[in-house]
Each structure stands twice: as C-alpha cells, then as structure tokens.
Amino acid sequence: MSEKIYSKHIDRAKEILSKMTIDDKILQMSIYGNLNKAYAEFLEKGQIELRAGTFHNPTEEKNLNELQDYCLNKTKLGIPLMPATETLHGVQDKDATVFPQCAGLGCSFDREAILEMADIIGNEARAKGIRQVYAPCVDIPRDPRWGRLQESYGEDPYLVGEMGAQYVKGIQKHDVAACAKHFIAYGVPEGGINLAPAHMGEREMREVTLEPFKKLIDAGVMSIMPAYNEIDGEPVHGSVKYLRSLLREELGFDGVVVSDYGAVQMLHTFQKVASDDLEAGKLAINAGVDIEAPYLFGYGEKFKEAVLSGEIDEKLIDEAVLNILVLKLKLGLFENPYTDPERIKQMHSKKAVDLALRLDEESILLLENDGILPLDEKKIGKVAVIGNNGKESSPGDYIDLTENCVDFYNGMVNRLGEDRVLYAKGCKPISYTEEEINEAVETAKQADVVFLVLGDQAAVGGGVAGAAEKNKEITCGEGYDMHTLDLPPSQRRLFDEITKLNKPTILVLYAGRPYTLEQDINRVNAFMFSFGGGEQSGNAFANLIFGDKSPSAKLSVSFPKSVGHIPCYYNYKPSARGTLYRQHGSVEKPGRDYVLSSPNAWYPFGYGLSYTTLDYSNLTVEKLENGDVKVKVDVENTGNYDIFESVLLFVKALYAPVTPFVKRLRNFAKVYLKAGEKKTVEFTLTQEDFTYVDLNFKTTVLNGQYEILIDKLQCDLEY
Questions:
Q1: 3-class secondary structure, 476
Q2: Residues 138, 166: Cα–Cα separation, whole Å
Q3: Which CATH class is domain 614-718?
Q4: Structural domain boundaries of the chain?
Q5: What string of DSSP letters covers 547-580?
Q6: In this structure, what are the phi and psi dihedrals at residue 108, rounded to the nearest 5 degrees?
Q7: What digits encode the pLDDT tens for the residues 220-234?
Q8: Comparing 226-235, 354-363, 471-480, which segment has the lowest mean pLDDT?
Q9: Burial class (CB in 10 A: 0-12, 13-18, 19+), 335
C-alpha cells in the first residue's frame, strides 16, 4: 500500500475517531461470538444493540449482509462490522474447500502450493463476507505431547516462517486480514500442557520463536494474536515488554493486536496477575491489546468508568481504536462489507479440489516400507480397512468434515470398488468392546491386505466446544494434550490383535502429533502417516498406495523414540545430545547418554521414504562480492518413479561467541524429477543466514567457519 493511500486512511480514521464517544470506542475494541443471535434481535426490534465491532464465525450470508447494511447506513458513524473466523487449513464453512492440516503442509516443503492454497482460502473467506482470519499459526512446537502441534508448519523457524509468509500473501490478496498467532513462545508449554508457562530464555526465544513473526511482519501481516502463556512469570497479554517494546517498536508491527479468546480474563482468573477485571483491562491496554475476545471483561463497565475518570489515559483507547479503524479502511469495508454472490458460486472449484488432492499427496509420509508398497491392484483380491480412522478419517483441528471429504475407506472404494473393500471399526479412539475387536479380527482374516487405520480424533473447532458438538472421544487439538505418545489402550489392543494374524499389514496413522512405535513397527509391512487429511485424503492415499504417485513428504517434526526422549528436535545445541561421551546404550549393551538408549530421534526432521532413489552430487559454494553465497547441487532421480523432491539446505556454524546450533535450515526447494532425470538446484544465501543473537541479544553477522549441508554432502565456507 502506498504512503499516500495509507496517509489517507489515517486521516479518515482520525476524523471518525473525533466523533466517537467512549461507548463507541469500546464497542470497536470487542468481539461478539454470536451473529445469529444478534440477527434475531434485529428482526425482533428492527434495530440491533451493537455489542462489538467484530463478529466471530458468521454462518448465514443474508444475516450478515443485513447487519452490515444496518451498521453502514443506519448508525450515526456508519462503521461496518469486521466478520472473522478460523481458516487454519480451510474456511470453517460447509461450502469451503478442506486442505490438509498445517504440520502436514509443512512436510510438503512447497511454498508455491501454500501460496496457491491461501489464495483459494482467502477468496472463499471473502466470498462469505469474512474479512479477518485467525491464521496462520506460526508457533514452534517443542513438546509433541501438546495438542496444538498439528497447527504449526513444523519445528523449524525458517520453514514455519516461509510457509506462514506465503499464507499471509495469499490470504491478504483478497482484502482479508490474516492474523498471525500466537506471539510468542506458545509452542513450548511446561509438560506439553496447553497454556502452561514457557521456560525459555530471551536468546532462545529470539533465535527460535521470533523468526517466523519477523517474516510475517515483513510480508505485511495485518493483525497478530498474542499467546495465552506466560514467559518467566510475565503473561504475554499483559506485557509491555513483548507487545509494545518487542512487537511494535523493535519489529515495527503497525497492525491490530487481537486477544486470544478469554486471555484478558485469564490475567485475573488463571495467571493471577490482576486482582479483578479492571486490573486485567489496565494490563492489556497498557500492553497494547487493541481488541478483546470473545466478550468484554477487562474492557467492560469498570474500564469505561476508569477512562472517564482519567484513571486510564484515553489516548491508549484512541490508539487502539485508530488501529482498528485503519484496518477496516485498508480492507475496503466502508465501501463494500457484504458477501460476494459471484465468489460464492466459485467456491469449492475444480482447481481448489485438485490442489487439495495434490497437497495431500505431498503431505502424506511413508516412514517404513519393506517392499510391499506400491501395491498392484490387479494382483490383490480384497483389502480390509480396520480402525477408528478408517471412516471419517481425522482432518485435524479447526476444520469441519464436510460432505465433500473422502475418508480412507472411501478412497479405497473409489479405487477398488465396494465389493473388494471390507471394513470394521475395531475400536474408538480411546475405548473399545470385545465385540468390536472380534469383528475387526474376523474381517481382517478375509482380506489379502489389511490397512490398520488408527490415530487421533481431533477437536473440530478447537477446545471443549468442538468436542461436545460432535460427542466423540477427542485425543488431540486445543486443550487436548497427552501424557504419553503411546497408542491409547483401545488402539494398542486392536494393533496387537490384527498384527498377530501375520497378514500383509500397512499401518496408517492420522495423528496430530508423533506416536512412538519403534519397538513394534517391525510387526507391520509399511507405515504411512498423515497429520490430518484434507477433503481428498482418501483418494490421495490410494494414489500413493497403488503407485500412481511416489510419496515425497519429509517430516516437518521429529519423532522421538519415547516420551523420555523429549525434547526431540533437530536444531539443538552441540552439548544437548550427549556428544561428549558418544557411548549411547541399549538394553543389550548399556552405555551412557542414555544408559539404555540413544537420545537421537526415531524419525528425524526431513526424513521420508519414496518409491524411487535419488543421488545428490557436485555440491559447490561460492561467496559473491555483495556478501551473498551461491550454492549449487546436482540431484538425479536414479529410480523408476517420477517425484517431487524437497531439497533441504542446512548451514552449520563451527564456532560462535554463544553456542551455535548443530545446524539450521536456511533454504529449501521443490524440484520435479522424472525417472532418470538430473537437475542442478541453485540457492542464494544472504547475510541474514549467517547471523546469531549475540551476548547483548542483538542479531549480529557471524564471520567465521561454516559448513553447508545438503543431504549427505557438505562443503566448507569461510564467511
């Protein structure tokens, strides 16, 4: 946006602000969660008692349009509403396209596809009149027990930032504001329990969790949601340090800060830093929280009285309201706040469905394969789909299953025909009956190949409300954290009984987090994994299983061997994994670090199998006069399957004034290789890729010795 247009928005916003009462201002600083109830009042009274400047999750286009018309044309100030909703991997709407869950999208390492997906989501949101979306989630998960791990693009700051920036660009093309969340250090909760304190020093916070937000601010993200958590005793929603000094002053963010739902109230009820609602409101407004969700608590009646009495400086309220008005002006809401009937007709287009299929194919991981895959459909008779995720396969949280969603069972039926696909649920996510187990065993006996489809049931909309709505056994999602990474007892029992049959068995997990099956994985012939499938998940699985496409996904999150191996991520510090002793043990031969195991990941970041073989060669590095570094590598597909290969480039600093990482992802590329084809892949690294956070917590260029790492190749560099 040009300076001239932006200045025009500021001037107009200030003019509107000058006419507003304190009631008008506080109304703009709140979110109301029930548009349909508001519309019912509108029909009854012929007018609406406006409760907020933002409405969450409007569902009926007619209702929204009438309310917007009322606000725009029949109120004294003519300020439109800002409808908002969740769009983590698709708009939460029955007509929308459902894409794979975000951790799976990270496994695609496909920037272009994420941009294309966000373009579609933004267009579908705009069609429904949605003008703000609570996405992307760019947290860096550090504990796989955390139920929201699935919502991030992975454990690596560079990957998450790159994917999140593409999402922002695609969404905001349609005059829809993205809202990046959750600022900051939300993905490292104590014990893996949602909302728990983050134990993270300032340097680590800057090195790990800040990078994605920097990228999104550079990409122009219009709004940001703070994290629920506290850092070293300081809740983020009440922190001048994090929301004013760091976010606004240091990072230069000039958009709207939207509270997470109930987070201002939690300053009083949960974190105990505010003695009552007024104190919570004071903390939030001083920190720079512009909008409180999902209702007024901190910004309620006592807050208003404190502003009128001068106890709270009205300049703080004016600052917040000005941010909100400028955003509404940027989005064009004053000119056209309505739904778009023509765009609604275009929702769930063939282009969107095709992309959903492609992204699922690029997100599904092949983690083990003894040669059983790909299957030849002409050489097998019947297959059995067994397990709690065989039908209504989990799409991950913050999305609804729609009538367009193809689950694993129906993907097999679409491929083989109903007469060749047997089915038994076998168990629920947590509970089971002996009858269910017995039925599953008898069904599996009749098949030539068994697909054991297990894993999580995610909360639909986040939190308890989503679970209650569907009345299911929820194992993952917001507020559904685990003390273990083992299969729940029901699924463990089913796994044991089915694998006892010694049938050719392919384990398929739909799960929002890693599971630990290292000791049992040799009991199946192949292991495939989805972090949550999009609407074409069943068809995508079939395409990969029967060899139409080769699996290409690479893990965006490391899989630990057990809960005792947490933390488990690839970009650790040199002293973190027992490198001094190098005497990892086992039950057969006890050692050190650990006595009975190795601290290494079961499946590390970047791991993933395919049906082809690849050869990396000729890695070269050249430092240019402008300080950039050009990197080239040859990649050859030496197998029989075409593939989309993700080429990952890591940088390793050998020495630094503060301990360096063992390596850091600094670039990646998606390259299509036909069988037998060879291509040269080029990267450019900039000065930013050779920086560290120094002893004064400043990002500084690090001159010295480096290694550039791609696949199993390495090349030395003096920078």
A1: strand
A2: 12
A3: mainly beta
A4: 614-718
A5: TSS------SSPBPSSGGG-S--SS--TTTT-TT
A6: -75, -25
A7: 999 999 999 999 999
A8: 471-480
A9: exposed
